User: Fold this.
Amino acid sequence: MSKVRIATVWLDGCSGCHMSFLDMDERLMELASKVEVVYSPLVDVKSFPDGVDVTLVEGAVSSEEDLEKIRSVRERTKILVSLGDCAVTANVPSMRNPFGVDAVVGRAYLENAALKPQVPKEFVPPLLKRVRPVHEAVKVDVFVPGCPPSADTIHFVLSELMEGRLPDLRGRSRFGA
Ligand code: SF4
Assistant:
C-alpha cells in the first residue's frame, strides 16, 4: 500500500504547533509506517512538491512571501489543514493589525534598535497590510483550533484523514487550549 504523502508548513507562528506535532512521540513511529513526510521544517527538503495528500499549516499569513507560499501549497495539496489558532484566526500575529505596518516596522527596527537603526531592504519579506488567517487567503478543508492543538488532537486528525474521513473535532479541541 502506498504511503500517504504529508507536508507541514510554517508561516507566521511560533513553532509551538510543530512542537506539538513532535509531542506525538512514539506515535510518530507508528505514523512513519503509513505516511511519508515530503516537505516540512522538520525535514531537509527545500521546495514544496506536487501531489501532496495532506498539508498541516502552522501560522497566519503575514507577508507577501507567506501569501505566495500558501497559494502554491494549496495548488499542490488535496487536503489543507489549518493547524492551531494562528492559522485558524490569525491569533497572536494579528495583534499588529490595529497599528499598521509602518508603526510596527518602525518600532522593531528603528525605535528599539541599539545599533545602526535601519529598516532592512533585503532578506525580510514585505509585510501585508493586515495579517490574515489561512482561509482568507486560500480554501481550507479542516480547521484545528488550539494554541497549540494537543498531540492527541493532531494524532486524531491524521488518523481520521488516513482512514479517508474528515475529522469531527467537536469536543476534542478549543481555542487557546
Ligand atoms: S497557535 Fe499558538 S502554538 Fe501555534 S503558532 Fe500560534 S502561538 Fe504558536
